[in-house]
Specification:
The protein is mostly beta strands and 247 residues long. 9% of the residues lie in helices and 31% in strands. Strand 15 and strand 16 form a beta hairpin. This is Exosome 3'->5 exonuclease subunit ski4 (Csl4).
């Protein structure tokens, strides 16, 4: 008889035998058993009744996802997590630009959104639908866009790089980083690599990715007027940016 699965797992914890389950994300196999590779809720993805494929055990990075501890709840739909605790490949993130160099821009990740861009857009449009303090996107962006709040707190956040070749999908050789981003800009991007121990790698090479909030040289919040330009409503001055498609 298969023992009940734990609701939460810690790295190295035994979850079940490979004779009964298949190993999914966040797990590894050792000595014919499946073990947790990361900490998080245990998720059971049941197999179809007509299929001979075994149910899949995985450990989620999400703090909001509700685990399915046993096969008794196989017919209960597991809600998709809105926000993740750690960046993963294909995660959509909001980040603040902290440094711009000739070949790359350094950003500090503020929020890790759901890997579904459409879900992220919906949450940004209606932040009242969020479910935790960290999910209040409006307050996070408002605070992050304020130059007075740019402090050493960036050192405590995940750091990432946007390389020159990952800024745009076309005309990559014509990208000038100073014309794409400025320090303090809020950028929406997608994680393309977990990188090394210091930096993740992010791309903005999609129409819906790029700068979503920026202040002009005069200190006023700008609004987008095209895919490559934002304008200061007070002074009328335009500045170049790699602009994310407006909602």
């Amino acid at each position: 008889m298969t023992s009940a699965l734990p609701a939460l797992a810690i790295p190295g914890q035994r979850l079940g035998p490979i004779a009964s389950y298949s190993a999914g994300p966040g797990t590894h196999v050792q000595n014919a058993n499946i073990y947790a590779s990361i900490a998080g809720p245990v998720v059971l993805d049941p197999a179809q009744p007509s299929s001979k494929v075994k149910s899949t055990l995985s450990v989620s990075r999400s703090i909001n996802r509700q685990p399915t501890p046993s096969s008794d709840a196989t017919k209960t739909a597991t809600p998709k997590p809105k926000y993740n605790t750690l960046p993963a490949v294909e995660s959509v993130v909001l980040a603040r630009v902290t440094r711009v160099q000739k070949r790359q821009a350094t950003v500090s990740i503020l929020v890790v959104l759901d890997d579904s861009a459409s879900a992220s857009n919906a949450q940004l449009l209606n932040p009242a639908q969020t479910t935790s303090d960290n999910d209040n996107i409006a307050s996070i962006l408002t605070s992050a866009a304020n130059p007075e709040n740019h402090s050493n707190s960036d050192e405590l956040r995940f750091q990432a790089l946007i390389r020159k070749e990952d800024v745009r999908a076309v005309e990559k050789d014509r990208v000038v980083m100073d014309e794409m981003f400025r320090v303090g800009d809020i950028v929406r991007g997608t994680v393309i690599s977990l990188g090394d121990q210091s930096f993740y790698y992010i791309t903005t090479a999609r129409n819906d990715l790029g700068v979503v909030m920026a202040r002009s040289e005069a200190g006023n919040m700008m609004f987008p007027v095209s895919w490559k330009e934002m304008r200061d409503p007070a002074t009328g001055a335009a500045e170049l940016r790699k602009v994310a498609r407006p909602f």
